Amino acid sequence: MTTHSANDLRPIRSPRGIPLLGNTPQIPDTNPVEYFGELSKQFPEGLYGMDIAGAMNTRPGSPEDGASPPAPAVGLPPPAERGATVIPDRVVARIAARAARTAQSQRAALPPDRDGQTAPHASAAVHTGSVRLHLTMDLPYPTDIPQVCERIQRDVAERVAQLTGLKVGEVTLTVRRLVTAADVSVSRGRVR
User: What is the pTM of this model?
Assistant: First the structure.
């Protein structure tokens, strides 16, 4: 595998902008796609940057924009030799926990609790492009436990796959405890 130093890299070119606002005022309200198409013709590399209100965004030109195809990368090794992106287990677990918290509030009608007693816990095992997830969470009582669990598993699997690009092989869900409405009120510091 060939390595390149930071000195070999070229900065991404971008159109001149206005201080603080960047390129934001240049983007028209009507038909911005046409504007981006014209802009991509100015950058034959197929890649350009846009400063949108102080945040640099990189935008690839595309044939739909009217741009020519990107020029081949000069001096870079073939894609197969460049390496791989590795997402650690703990990062995937945090993504799964966040997705489980969202699914828990939507599917099980429990208000999201970031660090409290009802907050979902997740663990992940990543191996060669796939991941196995284990979720532990509370569910409300009464509820249709099998149906709610199935929906939460599906929601979490879809969200983790969407955000990480990993194939989710298995999602196991353990119900830690069943929570009544009174339990939720007490855990939040409210007493009726």
Answer: 0.54
